[in-house]
Design a protein that fits this description.
With about 525 residues, the chain is of the alpha/beta class. The protein has 2 domains: about 160 residues, Leucine Aminopeptidase, subunit E, domain 1; about 325 residues, Zn peptidases (Aminopeptidase), CATH 3.40.630. It is built from 14 helices and 17 strands. Strand 9, helix 9 and strand 10 form a beta-alpha-beta unit. The longest helix has 25 residues.
């Protein structure tokens, strides 16, 4: 990037690099900076002498002369999620020992990921370079549950340690470099799971950095560069194709190019292809992401309170999920599956050359669209991307987009809406989300709502009424998918960012898990 508006260039900051080790040792024998024990409300039960009944807590507290029980009582620590208490100890193997609340029952990936994040926060606060984590009650866990718990804890620790300080003039590098996971087993299978956690986390961090980057830095061209870097880094399994506006014109992508027309930054249509390093390909998949690096709304400009125009750099969150998954899969290298990563990247701006309300655009499958709202532009870009994906000969497509405010109204800020006419695909993706801990909810594809999308002068309009807006948007996308292809649309407008307006990397872990399920 030789020049950006405002002369802003992100600093190059290395993502967290934590060495994880699985150990079966007595927790009281561990030596290091910080020992964190994950406890449920039930784990804190006391006997008649106010001593812990839980064997691990009893053993630790005995070594610490009752200080742990005393501190947890004084600080009213009850094991609820979000609670923690830490002691600075002299003359003990670990400099700090603490309890972190897991809630009533820790059984979900989200709970264990939260534990990992809390450990990272404690390590940052104490400037710890090494830590150990243990669950107060791990005896009842099955072998599979131990693997998934270790994966979630490790993911949480890496993501909790990560801070995107690339746009700050000064930042400190976190000290944490190693974490021992005690009591969840050991051996090659667990080591493989911990490596997998690192691979997925690196993809999530990449996705977060893309979404957090402002539109004056992350233009469509820079997004294409970043995607190409993924392909070149893992060139043993990836190839990349970047189409310019003229090449898109040859493919008759009038819907996508209509959106891109007003911007001084030219569009870039991005296609990465993953092929396994060896063996046959049993299934072909496509991941399609919405890639609006900035959305002004066009002539239907975003105005007034709540329009969130200042957060419209997030409108490429779908593309970040797609490329974050690509980065993770480049490291994992699953066999038996070919994956296409497709993004029609552009900006939705205003100029004398731009698309006007009332214009009719023609998509690459020949269907015509009356643009009754230039701020419903994401679906116009996805239309041509979905046609292109079907032309790659794939059997299944998942598209992800920050598509509608209606979906946020329906499901709130942390749940993505899922739309698909295919029950088998819904089952696959929702099961993958259960493993990843991301929240998805299947929504209806009510065909009768398509009536509101019919145009008097073209095949369709690009927006219907306000009611059921997320459903009518999904029905619009369905018009550009081959009937023989299984297809799912994920509306992630809510969970793309958190309450601090920072990127979450939503969707990446679920996509990776889904691809691996298809690979196996």
């Amino acid at each position: 990037m030789s020049h950006t508006l405002g002369l802003t260039h992100p600093s190059i900051i290395q993502p967290p690099n934590i060495a994880f080790s699985a150990k079966e040792i007595d927790v009281t024998e561990w030596k290091g900076d910080i020992l964190a024990v994950g406890v449920t409300v039930k784990d804190l039960a006391r006997d008649s002498n106010s001593n812990f009944e839980n064997s691990i807590l009893k053993k630790l507290d005995s070594k610490l002369g009752g200080l742990l029980a005393e501190a947890s009582s004084e600080e009213d620590f009850s094991g609820k999620v979000g609670q923690s208490t830490f002691l600075r100890i002299a003359g003990f193997g670990s400099k700090r020992v603490g309890l972190i609340g897991l809630g009533q029952l820790a059984s979900t990936p989200a709970a264990f990921k939260g534990f990992g994040e809390a450990v990272a926060a404690a390590a940052k606060s104490a400037h710890a370079s090494n830590a150990a984590v243990v669950l107060a009650s791990s005896e009842g866990l099955s072998a599979q549950s131990k693997l998934s718990s270790a994966y979630a804890i490790a993911s949480g620790a890496v993501l909790g340690l990560f801070e995107d300080n690339r746009y700050k003039s000064a930042s400190k590098k976190p000290a944490l470099s190693s974490v021992d996971i005690i009591g969840l087993g050991s051996g090659p299978e667990l080591d493989k799971k911990l490596k997998y956690a690192g691979d997925v986390s690196s993809g999530i961090i990449f996705g977060r950095e893309l979404v957090n980057s402002p539109a004056n830095v992350l233009t469509p061209g820079v997004l294409a560069e970043e995607a190409s870097k993924v392909a070149s880094t893992y060139s043993d399994v990836f190839t990349s194709t970047i189409l310019n506006a003229d090449q898109c014109k040859e493919l008759k992508m009038g819907s996508y190019l209509g959106v891109a027309e007003a911007s001084a930054n030219p569009p870039h249509f991005i296609h990465l292809r993953y092929k396994p390093p060896s063996g046959p390909v049993n299934v072909k998949l496509a991941l399609v992401g919405k890639g609006l690096t900035f959305d002004s709304g066009g002539y239907n400009i975003k105005t007034g309170p709540g329009c969130s125009i200042e957060f419209m750099k997030f409108d490429m969150g779908g593309s970040a999920a797609v490329f974050g998954a690509a980065k993770a899969l480049g490291q994992i290298k699953p066999l038996g599956v070919e994956v296409h990563f497709i993004v029609a990247a552009c900006e939705n701006m205003i100029s004398g050359t731009g698309m006007r309300p009332g214009d009719i655009v023609t998509a690459s499958n020949g269907k015509t669209i009356e643009v009754n709202n230039t701020d419903a532009e994401g679906r116009l870009t996805l239309a041509d991307a979905l046609v292109y994906a079907c032309n790659q000969g794939v059997e299944k497509i998942v598209d992800l987009a920050t598509l509608t405010g209606a979906c946020v109204v329906a499901l709130g800020p942390s749940i993505a809406g899922v739309f698909t006419p295919n029950d088998d695909l819904a089952k696959e993706v929702l099961e993958a989300a259960e493993v990843s801990g991301e929240k998805l909810w299947r929504m209806p594809l009510e065909e009768s709502y398509w009536e509101s999308m019919k145009s008097g002068v073209a095949d369709m309009v690009n927006t219907g009424g306000r009611q059921g807006g997320a459903i009518s948007a999904a029905l619009f996308l369905k018009q550009f998918v081959d009937e023989k292809v299984q297809w799912m649309h994920i509306d992630m407008a809510g969970p793309v960012s958190n309450d601090k307006h920072s990127a979450t990397g939503f969707g990446i872990a679920t996509l990776v898990e889904w691809v691996l399920k298809n690979a196996s």
